[in-house]
Amino acid sequence: MATQLADQFIEALQKLESDHDVDTIVSLFADDCEVGNLVSNEKFHGTDEARKFWTHYRETFGDVHSTFQNKIINDHTVALEWTTEGDNGKGQDVSYRGVSILETNGDKVVRFFAYFDPKALGQQVQQA
């Protein structure tokens, strides 16, 4: 089940990035999920806050696209190694790499956390 959910997550993220479709990615999360990353001081709980998290992610960039170099999957955990490239909405290129951990329960993500260098990303996003 985790393998299928990992593939669905990748497809949903790419749909979010290309079409601004937040609904598809949020539908993969459990009602009591927890979502976060190294940039946000808060953790987002539940699907309404997951929607807020993913909307903010997409609004951070102009064009954006993630590619996945590696997937490590066991019964209830997925690790995705990725590179995200695009622009900051102001004409400056953005490129950063990281790893996302998804904890799953059946066909839902119960916890998502992304690890990357927030300083490098912040400098790229804020360039005028």
UniProtKB/TrEMBL annotation:
Domain spans labelled SnoaL-like: 8-111
Q: Which Pfam families match?
A: SnoaL_2
Protein name (record): SnoaL-like domain-containing protein
**What is the phylogenetic placement of the source species in the record?**
Bacteria, Pseudomonadati, Bacteroidota, Cytophagia, Cytophagales
Residue intervals passing through the bilayer? none
